[in-house]
Amino acid sequence: MINITKPFLPDLQEYISYLEGIWDREWLTNNGPLVNDLELRLKEYLDVKHLLYLGNGTIAIQIAIKALGLRDEIITTPFSYAATTNSIVWEGCTPIFADIDPGTLNVDPAKIEERITPKTTGILLTHVYGNPCDVEAVDAIAKKHGLKVIYDGAHAFGVKYKGSSIFNYGDVVTTSFHATKLFHTIEGGAVTTNDANLLRTMSLLRNFGHIGNDQFELCGVNGKNSEFHAAMGLVNLKQIDKIMASRKMQSEYYNKIMSHIRVTRPQVLPGAEWNYSYYPVIFESEELLLKSVKLLNEHWIYPRRYFYPSLSTLPYVDKQEVPISEDISRRVLCLPMYHTLRPEDMDYIVRILARAQNN
Ligand SMILES: *Cc1c(COP(=O)(O)O)cnc(C)c1O
């Protein structure tokens, strides 16, 4: 069986050596030494001023929305995972969808301006599949209209734009370290910012709003993560360059053997150093996609319709016109991609895709 992804598991003995430290200290959670150490190393790796390690990537978005004081309308992408839109709704705001560019699959900045109203307070976009949004255009629009920008960087670990970390664009960048992501801590996430005041607010929000033992400054939530999760992160971070190098090789191998398959690939933003975190392909029609998925499944191969459906069709959001997102969502498929996927596995997958399109 070949699944869409397989979580990376590090050397068990190395993880156990961290567990022994936890047993010695008897400190399991609440901003422990491993959490602090992981935050330091991630700041270094992602080249950001401030980073808070959190329970998951969804609470990261919610904390960012809350810390920036966003309310009413937030302009966002219809082409992302449900966590992006859900966080907006969960925070009592209204998602306003701006359609995507059919080439990059990220929000088309021109469509953002069309959606701005007096009620707009912020913009929340995803760097889809790790491909950076047109951050310069988005930031210019935000500045012009006095809007805050959050980027959902759940796919963007290690991505650079014009030589600097993609985590340095926007007011807050959120990310996820879920087991299925390129870099993971089993469950986990983070917010990054270069603004010290925002850092302070988000750090209070992460821990119920506590200042000292008996006082609360604001209405926070539990966004913390544990020493056990941080330990997984510390071990996995040592392997991340190797994991990224294997993704790049696999991605290039897929490119090479896919030339006769009638699919298109998203265009990476010029100036970006991509992390090859996913391998999305866009079919000519949904019919051909479904036929391909069926044949792959019959051979125990499980790709994923990611992102499907377009978030504009969720039953709890107002209907909005985003035809490109709705069209692409129906035709896009992520092929299996993980550190131990072998060239012969990819050959097999592509042979089946060829058979699906030829009969
Ligand atoms: C995975 C993911 C999230 C949510 O992260 P969790 O850690 O699972 O809460 C948010 N946005 C995108 C784009 C994701 O892929």
TrEMBL record:
A Pfam family hit: DegT_DnrJ_EryC1
Record InterPro entries: DegT/StrS_aminotransferase, PyrdxlP-dep_Trfase, PyrdxlP-dep_Trfase_major
UniProt cross-references to Gene3D superfamilies, sorted A to Z: Type I PLP-dependent aspartate aminotransferase-like (Major domain)
Endoplasmic reticulum recorded as keyword: no
GO MF annotation terms: transaminase activity
CDD domains on file: AHBA_syn
Keyword annotations: Aminotransferase, Pyridoxal phosphate, Transferase
Domain of life: Bacteria
Keyword GTP-binding applies: no
Coiled-coil region list: none
Family from the record: Belongs to the DegT/DnrJ/EryC1 family.
Protein's name in the database: DegT/DnrJ/EryC1/StrS family aminotransferase
Organism: Nemorincola caseinilytica
